[in-house]
Design brief:
Chain lengths: 553, 635
């Protein structure tokens, strides 16, 4: 049974990409680079997206007779290839260019105007960079776990293709394809290599997301038809869609359809209950990728699709969504506080962090948006690192229960340092990256309505409570039992995995300006696109005006 | 340029060196790097201090780099040295250096020696950032950073549950204050459009209505932040528990520097605070209340460090009282003298604890004055200074605060301050007599090994003792007009002006005499009660059971907080949010959708039963239905 599932997954995955690549290669026009957008002369984005295929193929080829590690080596090396391409991409990126760069545009399903259309701007760029940083880290960190087999490696590569593709796709159908592809490997990761209750968790995860996805698909198709009705030609290109005037009443429905899909993915309260189960049952690498990258597709989708396409509807929905974001912050924090299992605690803390990001995205100003974006990066780095830490601990002890620990600092001092570092980053200590994001989001929210900001600020108190309480119970105190006493500290490999993540966490906190330089131009253009300034004015709660009415000035 | 950034850079380098290499290079390396890093910072601070004095009225500014810039927000890593930060620089690096030196001897036998010095250097780094920052956010980096170091150092003995609890409590309670600070910063950002101190202070009178709601709200939030860091009601509860840390840490962080950062912030934003008289009144009231309450707790505590901790809370209350009545300069003056004598007192208590092999209970001390003569002498100096006996440092600042309170026409607050002064003198001399006088109650086994501390510990005591004696002459009272009031001259034109009524000279002299009496009489009472046998004390303990229990149990504030806030929050999170909403409602809906699919599938399965006749029937019905739809429905 297990094997059937597995092979089905691999075969379908590979076939899907085979079809895609052939369609690209046999297309009548060759890769076209738009004249206005900077590029590098070769399809670097496609290379990046499909470079994990390299690891996938080698992992399949080397599966027998070359030892347990060979598949792992293949995938790790291939993730380095992706990484190198990403660095090249970063260096070639034009900071002052306002639109999409490195664009690749080829007809795919021509009859409906569906294109193989890739391109990145500042927003995509930073997310892509995090994606290619997290995967090698996660692969190296889970190097010696028992679940690691070539089949598992194949899933990770498929997952990476889906993630990168989603961040780069500029065609709605293409985006949807990549978006859905990710579900398959994750479904297997949790369902096959997960914990005891994995079937429940994976089914729940799948149903939740598929529910959202189907709404998304329906909405995409409807918007496409709308485009056809308006302009007489078919197009699923997001950039074309931005010019599409949609009546306000229609916007309300489409907004709901798109937003629900992304809210489930994010996850936004009250659609979050799949997350703790999925995290808890998932193997370490699955948890890391889930937290670090998959969740980011929620806010990314909102930024890319929902707000620019349906600004009138956003207008109506914004207060509700921000309130949900605020509930998420408080609620996620409070529930995280009373969790008894490490991974569930971090999962609920993710709900709280995603609440901040949702708020940042919906306040429609530079601070909020830039803050939301950097918070996405921060969350990926920090929560990813926290899951790695927990994974390293779990690998040694095979228990997630917080009560089983105590006094780990005695046997694992280096681990205690790293864990503290990332915990502090997670609770937004100034000087580390979490603070930059939270501050920006709160300042942005304050510009819209000070009460949003104050409510969000209270989240920092709760964050300190749940994180430090957990840290105290696990790391501090007298040695609890023999299991803790005999723990081995982190080895060199594990340290080498965590150090780069720690460095990025610190650098983004101390000197985040390069990050802002990379996204500022894009965000300014983005906000102008739908008159965000005016938009914000209408929602603005003018504190001074409100109060000066009540007092004689 | 003046290279201001070098000041915090030295301790940061020290921290990194000790943290990364201290373990391998050994204790000698660590005890060399740690104090030296702070020493260099002190020297550079001195240079900049005098440069600043020479360019009178012009603060030194320096911008290191752009920190965050997006849209209308511009934040830079900017530093400034002016009268206020200059004074704090000297206190932090000066007292900090002495405490580093002291730590060499005190911590010598500790296993985590390098870890300790690394944290301590890091603390100095953040504290310097706090006072150097020229905008709210750089200050906030330091603000939370010192909180972090306090967390790490309180939890230095992390294997003790009490220490682990205390460090967590300190951080979380401080976070509540930080929430206030952040909220205030956001209000300021949307009102002023900037987060720079200079521009906010400048624009405050134009943009805020004096006494208006906005001004009051901003200052209230800021004050909430200050109560967290500076341990005032209602957030003072973390400070006494913070005594779980090593004693030099208590001296540096929880007496001389970190706990005064709330006052620093108030003084920094004085132009904002004077626009909100309601907040100023609240600050004065909270300050006086805290001072009195902490003093009443201190008189019954028997742990030597806890007495000092409550004394610190009480003295901080004095400083807030001064700020609240608009005497910013005087408040900062008391910060300075307090830094000298409280650091001295803590270090002395550390020397006692060190000699007694970590015994902190005063009931197990007594008669130590002959065995620890230097410690005794220096601690006595510190005690005289804090009690407010002239001409030691504490007298000048405390007397000035009481005088300003009186002349600002707050007689009730003055009375509270006056009572606190009596209590202070009493509990401090009680501490001295219990520890050094009377019969020895030391555990006989320990008694054999009592020895005076090494020079590295005694030298800092001596320096601080000298400062505690003479530190007060910077601000002599007005009646002694033949001496210049240094503090007033120093801060001339720095703070916002508060209209304060000037009392008569006679009143000042009367009050001064009263406060001297308030300092001296309790000494005699304490001598009678505690220097000999403790029979009388025990008798009173039995007689005044309820007040004694209240004081001994700190008015049960911790228990009340636990029952009123912490437990309900945990219960609500577990039962309502998690088990009820998450599992009970949301998940049930999710499961319902699954069940719906299963049930509806089960019902439809009935149709697929393989009976051909039934299929034919359905087929026929379907055809009829379609035909009906096509032909009849349109009409």
């Amino acid at each position: 049974m297990k094997k059937i599932f597995l092979h089905w997954g691999i075969i379908s995955g590979i076939t899907m990409f085979f079809i895609m690549i052939t369609s690209v290669c046999t297309a009548e026009t060759n890769l076209v680079t738009l004249p206005a957008s900077p590029g590098v002369g070769f399809p670097i984005l496609s290379l990046m997206v499909f470079s994990p295929l390299l690891g996938l193929l080698f992992a399949c080829l080397l599966r027998n007779g070359h030892g347990e590690r060979s598949a792992g080596v293949a995938t790790l090396l291939s993730s380095f290839v992706t990484f190198a391409l990403g660095i090249y991409l970063l260096l070639q990126f034009d900071l002052n260019h306002y639109g999409f760069q490195f664009v690749e545009q080829v007809p795919w399903i021509d009859i409906f105007g569906i294109q193989y259309y890739l391109g990145i701007d500042g927003i995509s760029l930073v997310l892509v960079l995090v994606a290619i940083l997290i995967l090698p880290s996660a692969l190296a960190a889970t190097w010696s776990t028992k679940e690691k087999s070539w089949q598992f490696q194949v899933q990770t590569m498929l997952l990476q293709i889906g993630i990168l593709g989603s961040f780069m796709a500029l065609d709605a159908i293409l985006f949807y394809t990549f978006f859905e592809i990710m579900l398959v490997p994750l479904y297997f990761m949790i369902g096959i290599w997960g914990g005891h209750n994995r079937i429940y968790a994976t089914t729940k995860f799948f149903i939740y997301t598929v529910f959202g996805s189907l709404l998304l698909l329906a909405s995409i198709i409807y918007t496409g038809i709308l485009y056809h009705e308006t302009f007489g030609v078919w197009s699923f290109s997001i950039i074309d869609w931005y010019d599409l005037p949609i009546p306000a009443s229609t916007q309300m429905w489409l907004f709901a359809g798109f937003c629900l899909a992304f809210a489930i993915k994010a996850p936004m309260f009250p659609f979050h209950t799949w997350l703790p189960d999925a995290h808890y049952e998932a193997p370490t690498l699955g948890s890391v990728e889930l937290a670090a990258m998959l969740l980011k597709l929620g806010p990314y989708g909102i930024i890319r699709f929902v707000i620019p396409l349906f600004p009138d509807a956003a207008h109506v929905y914004v207060p509700i969504l921000i309130i949900f974001g605020l509930i998420g912050i408080t609620y996620g924090g409070l529930v995280a506080m009373v969790q008894q299992k490490l991974k569930k605690l971090i999962a609920y803390s993710s709900v709280a962090h995603m609440g901040y990001i949702i708020i940042g995205v919906f306040v429609f100003n530079m601070q909020g948006l830039a803050g939301g974006l950097i918070q996405m990066i921060n969350h990926a780095l920090v929560t990813g690192a926290l899951f790695l830490c927990v994974g390293m601990l779990y690998q040694r002890t095979k228990t997630q229960e917080i009560v089983d620990y105590g006094g780990v600092a005695h046997s694992m001092p280096i681990f205690a340092c790293f864990f503290l570092f990332f915990s502090l980053a997670s609770i937004g200590l100034p000087g580390l990256n979490g603070f930059v994001g939270e501050l920006m989001i709160m300042l942005g929210a304050a510009r819209m309505n000070i009460f949003y900001a104050i409510a969000a600020a209270f989240g920092v108190v709760i964050a300190a409570v749940y994180m430090l309480w957990m840290y105290q119970r696990v790391i501090f105190g007298p040695i609890k039992n023999d299991m803790v006493r005999n723990l081995k500290d982190l080895n060199l490999r594990e340290q080498l995995v965590l150090i780069p993540l720690a460095v990025f966490t610190l650098v983004l906190g101390v000197y985040p300006q390069p990050f802002f330089d990379h996204v500022n131009t894009t965000l300014e253009g983005y906000l102008k696109q739908f008159n965000a300034e005016e938009f914000q004015q209408q929602h603005k709660f003018d504190l001074a005006a409100y109060w000066s009415l009540k007092q004689d000035k | 340029m003046h290279q201001i950034w070098l000041i915090p850079a030295f301790p940061l380098i020290g921290c990194i060196l000790n943290g990364l290499f201290g373990k391998f290079f050994g204790k000698r390396f660590v005890s060399f790097v740690g104090p030296l890093a702070v020493g260099f910072a002190f020297l550079h601070s001195l240079v900049l201090f005098f440069t600043m004095l020479n360019t009178k009225g012009h603060a030194l500014h320096e911008t290191l780099y752009t920190w965050m810039e997006t849209g209308s927000l511009h934040l830079s890593m900017g530093f400034q040295v002016d009268q206020l930060s200059g004074l704090f620089l000297l206190i932090i690096t000066g007292v900090g250096f002495l405490i580093h030196v002291y730590s060499i001897g005190y911590m010598h036998e500790e296993e985590g020696y390098y870890r300790y010095f690394s944290y301590l250097n890091l603390f100095v780094f953040f504290m310097l950032l706090l006072v150097l920052g020229d905008n709210f956010m750089v200050l906030f980096v330091g603000w939370e950073g010192v909180g972090l170091c306090s967390y790490l150092l309180i939890g230095y003995y992390f294997e003790k549950k009490s220490a682990a609890d205390a460090c967590k409590k300190a951080f979380i309670v401080n976070r509540i204050g930080d929430f206030g600070f952040l909220s205030a910063a956001m209000l300021i950002f949307i009102t002023f459009g900037t987060l720079s101190f200079d521009r906010v202070n400048e624009a405050a009178p134009d943009l805020l209505v004096p006494g208006g709601i906005l001004a009051t709200l901003i200052t209230l939030f800021l004050f909430l932040g200050a109560t967290g860091k500076s341990a005032q009601i209602p957030l003072y509860v973390w400070l006494p528990d913070a005594m779980e840390g090593p004693t030099p840490v208590s001296a540096l962080i929880h007496a001389a520097t970190m706990v005064t950062s709330g006052l620093y912030m108030l003084a920094r934003l004085s132009h904002l605070f004077v626009l909100a008289p309601a907040t100023m009144n609240l600050i004065a009231i909270i300050g006086a209340l805290t001072a009195l309450m902490a003093a009443t707790i201190a008189i019954t505590q028997t742990d030597i460090k806890r007495v000092l901790a409550y004394s610190t809370v009480s003295q901080l209350g004095y400083m807030f009282l001064a700020m609240g009545v608009g005497a910013f300069g005087v408040g900062i003056f008391h910060v300075m003298t307090h830094a000298f004598f409280k650091a001295l007192l803590f270090l002395c208590s550390g020397a006692v604890i060190h000699s007694l092999h970590h015994e902190q209970d005063m009931q197990k001390m007594g008669g130590l004055k002959n065995k620890l003569p230097v410690t005794y002498l220096t601690m006595l100096i510190g005690t005289i200074a804090i009690a407010g006996i002239p001409p030691f440092a504490g007298f000048f600042s405390k007397d000035e605060i009481l005088w300003k309170t009186w002349s600002a026409s707050h007689p009730i607050l003055w009375l509270m301050g006056f009572l606190t002064a009596i209590l202070t003198s009493f509990y401090m001399f009680r501490l001295i007599f219990l520890t050094f006088h009377g019969e020895s109650r030391v555990d006989p086994h320990t008694a054999k090994h009592i020895h005076e501390s090494p020079v590295s510990m005694l030298a800092p005591l001596a320096v601080l003792a000298v400062l505690s004696i003479f530190g007060g002459f910077f601000g002599v009272p007005h009646v002694l007009h033949f001496l210049p009031n240094g503090i007033e001259l120093y801060f001339e034109g720095f703070y916002a002006e508060v209209p304060v009524g000037h009392g008569s000279v006679i009143a000042e002299i009367v009050l001064m005499v009263m406060s001297v009496a308030a300092a001296l009489i309790p000494v005699w009472i304490a001598w009678k009660l505690y220097a000999g046998n403790l029979d009388q004390v025990n008798k009173w303990k039995a007689q005044f059971k309820i007040p004694y229990a209240l004081s001994w149990n700190k008015y049960y504030i911790d228990e009340i907080y636990d029952a009123a806030i912490i437990q309900p929050m945990k219960k609500c999170s577990t039962i309502v949010l998690w088990k009820w909403i998450d599992v009970g409602i949301i998940d049930r809906i999710v499961h319902l959708s699954g069940d719906l699919a299963r049930v509806s599938g089960g019902m439809l399965r009935g149709l697929q039963n393989g009976i051909l006749q039934q299929y034919a029937l359905i087929f026929a019905m379907g055809t009829v239905g379609i035909l009906w739809y096509l032909f009849f429905l349109p009409y």
